């Protein structure tokens, strides 16, 4: 009996100790990591004009590059406390998930299957799919491109491959790793056409008179999509800062800056700040 009471006492004490033990330390937010490090590490492309590309002077420039510098200034008080890590399409999400980068600005479209494994902020850019073709191919629509005599260059990523299989099952595919590689394939005649996000297509079409935009009416390429900052999921504090920052840029107190950047890089006005006059409500 005495032994039993001793065992019960030990059991009760263990329960009390467990209930009063300090909680496990919460994982440090990447926001705090960046502040302590005093430097921001951002994943980017270098071949996606006008969003992120190397200019004639060898500098990394573009809309997304300007955004990254502005985020560094807001966080650390200096737009140059920043390191860029140039990535390829298939390396974007592994870089964020592994902690190699703090977040990515890589003209990355939000999709449901991607959101399963990566976190997105609200979009900073409305976009969509476009197809640029050689004028000497003599075609004007996506449907005309669907012919085995043509070669279609696309990024080697699952959404692009799936869309090509759905819309252009008969065309020969050429899988490449960057927007500039797609562009060069068409310019040199290795491919007839290439698919890319609308802002990049706008840039290439304006700069190259031998290329033209195909009509995408009635195809998934005509759907509106959206580009977003991406980051490792599970860090609400870090995500909230970045999402709030984008929200203020697209529709809040920083909208004037968005207009300036949009006109600088896209050569046109951005979508309106909001679809109503808030002074009336």
Question: What does this entry look like structurally?
Answer:
- The chain is α/β, with parallel strands linked by helices and 281 residues long.
- It has 2 domains: 31-126 and 225-270, D-Maltodextrin-Binding Protein, domain 2 (3-Layer(aba) Sandwich), CATH 3.40.190.10; 128-224, Periplasmic binding protein-like II (D-Maltodextrin-Binding Protein, domain 2), CATH 3.40.190.
- It contains 11 helices and 12 strands.
- The chain has helices at 2-20, 30-37, 63-76, 92-97, 112-115, 142-145, 158-167, 179-187, 198-207, 236-251, 255-266; strands spanning 40-44, 47-48, 52-54, 60-61, 82-86, 103-105, 119-134, 151-155, 172-176, 193-197, 211-213, 224-231.
- Strands 7, 8, 9, 10, 11 and 12 form a 6-stranded mixed β-sheet that branches. Strands 5-1-6 form a 3-stranded parallel β-sheet. A 3-stranded antiparallel β-sheet has the order 2-3-4.
- Strand 8 (151-155), helix 7 and strand 9 (172-176) form a beta-alpha-beta unit.
- Helix 10 packs across helix 11 (255-266).
- The protein is globular.
Keywords:
281 residues; alpha/beta; D-Maltodextrin-Binding Protein, domain 2; six-stranded mixed β-sheet; three-stranded parallel β-sheet
């Amino acid at each position: 009996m005495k032994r039993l009471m001793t065992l019960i006492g030990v059991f009760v004490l263990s329960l009390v100790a467990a209930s009063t033990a300090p909680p496990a330390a919460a994982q440090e937010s990447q926001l705090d990591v960046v502040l302590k490090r005093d430097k921001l590490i951002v994943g980017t492309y270098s071949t996606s004009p006008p969003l992120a590309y190397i200019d004639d002077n060898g500098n990394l420039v573009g809309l997304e590059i300007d955004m990254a510098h502005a985020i560094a200034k807001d966080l650390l008080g200096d737009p140059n406390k920043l390191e860029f890590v140039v990535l390829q399409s298939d390396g974007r999400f592994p870089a964020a998930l592994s902690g190699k980068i703090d977040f990515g600005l890589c003209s990355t479209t939000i999709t449901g299957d991607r959101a399963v494994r990566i976190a997105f902020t609200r979009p900073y850019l409305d976009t969509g799919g476009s197809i640029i073709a050689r004028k000497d191919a003599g075609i004007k629509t996506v449907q005309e491109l669907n012919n085995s005599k043509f070669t279609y260059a696309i990024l080697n990523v699952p959404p692009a491959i799936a869309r090509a299989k759905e819309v252009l099952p008969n065309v020969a595919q050429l899988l490449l790793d960057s927007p500039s590689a797609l562009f060069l394939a068409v310019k040199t005649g290795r491919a007839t056409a290439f698919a890319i996000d609308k802002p990049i297509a706008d840039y290439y079409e304006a700069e190259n008179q031998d290329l033209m935009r195909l009509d995408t009416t009635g195809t998934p390429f005509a759907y509106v999509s959206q580009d977003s900052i991406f980051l490792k999921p599970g860090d609400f504090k870090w995500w909230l800062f970045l999402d709030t920052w984008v929200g203020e840029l697209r529709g809040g107190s920083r909208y004037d800056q968005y207009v300036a950047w949009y006109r600088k890089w896209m050569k046109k006005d951005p979508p309106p700040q909001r679809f109503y006059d808030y002074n009336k409500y």
